[in-house]
UniProtKB/TrEMBL annotation:
The keyword Electron transport does not apply. GO terms for molecular function: ATP binding. The keyword Transit peptide does not apply. The lineage of its organism: Bacteria, Bacillati, Bacillota, Bacilli, Bacillales. This is Taurine import ATP-binding protein TauB. It comes from Paenibacillus auburnensis. Keywords: ATP-binding, Nucleotide-binding, Transport.
Length: 258
């Protein structure tokens, strides 16, 4: 079968070098079915953000091919929602304004004004931040800004969602609450999601598959199937035997490749 006919996100022989000539991301070959959440872990500098940037179309130079349902990922009709590592909010726009602008730029602003307003309100409420609509990003805590960035990514109704350590600024309790909120929102709009995290537990709690990037750029990527944990009720995952087994598997890969 021709690779262009494979459905989902197909990453073929992707490699990135920045101008310095240093390899930022070794060869990546991944086929990720549509409507799944894939968590990505790897040591600092292993290329996690670079991988997301390449898919988001933010890198002018890379080699390899990126396809979504057989079409180039950067086609105009494929919407990609990105939650960058630094939130990427416009400081001169309110929370509401940030989402409005994103909808306008991506052409996701279909429907009439009332419908668009309802959509903004819906995603803000679902992230628990409806009361922050008129505030400016710099007046918000890191965790609040992360929620705005996630609401904004959902609001454009993307086919692909890229999240770069979206919960890194949160305390453990808030983090767990937001993991649940994220999963609930994702179920309502199951985009193909790549979710970068530093946290092994989070990778197991959220991912259908877990992608482990190695420290050495010539070393191979490990992909663990995590369907058993993914299928459980969120609150039952952490205490399960499968969760414990996955932790051990990941630790083993980390010992070998980090
Ligand atoms: N704009 C750039 N120019 C040159 N090199 C870069 C650039 N951005 C990243 N790199 C290099 O590419 C490699 C991968 O960086 P990247 O930011 O993708 O790592 P990461 O896995 O996201 O790390 P972290 O966990 O610290 O966020 C690093 O060696 C980094 O120094
Ligand atoms: Mg990064």
């Amino acid at each position: 079968m021709s690779s262009s006919r494979i459905s989902g996100l197909c990453i073929q022989e992707l490699q990135v070098e920045y101008k310095s000539g240093q390899v930022a991301l070794g060869q990546v070959n991944l086929t990720l079915p549509e409507h799944g959440i894939y968590t990505i872990i790897g040591p600092s500098g292993s290329g996690k953000s670079t991988l997301l940037r390449a898919i988001a179309g933010l890198l002018p130079n890379y080699t390899g091919e990126l396809l979504f349902n057989g079409k180039p990922v950067h086609d105009k009709d494929i919407l990609v929602g990105l939650v960058p590592q630094n939130y990427g909010l416009l400081p001169w726009k309110t929370v509401h304004g940030n989402i409005q602008v994103a909808m306008k730029i991506t052409g996701a602003a279909g429907g009439d004004k009332a419908e668009r307003e309802a959509r903004i309100t819906h995603w803000l409420s679902s992230m628990g931040i409806a009361d922050l609509a008129d505030r400016y990003p710099l007046s918000l805590s890191g965790g609040q800004q992360q929620r705005v960035a996630i609401a904004r990514a959902f609001a454009i109704l993307p086919q692909i969602m890229l999240l770069d350590e979206p919960f890194s600024a949160l305390d453990a309790v808030t983090r767990e609450a937001l993991q649940q909120i994220f999963l609930d929102n994702w179920l309502a709009h199951p985009a193909t999601a790549l979710f970068v995290t530093h946290d092994v537990d989070e990778a197991i709690l959220l991912g259908q598959r877990i992608i482990i990037l190695p420290a050495g750029k010539a070393d191979s990527i490990e992909v663990l199937d995590n369907a058993a944990v993914f299928g459980m009720k969120h609150e039952e995952k952490r205490g399960s035997n499968e969760f414990f087994e996955q932790t051990k598997r990941i630790r083993k890969v980390m010992q070998e490749k980090w």
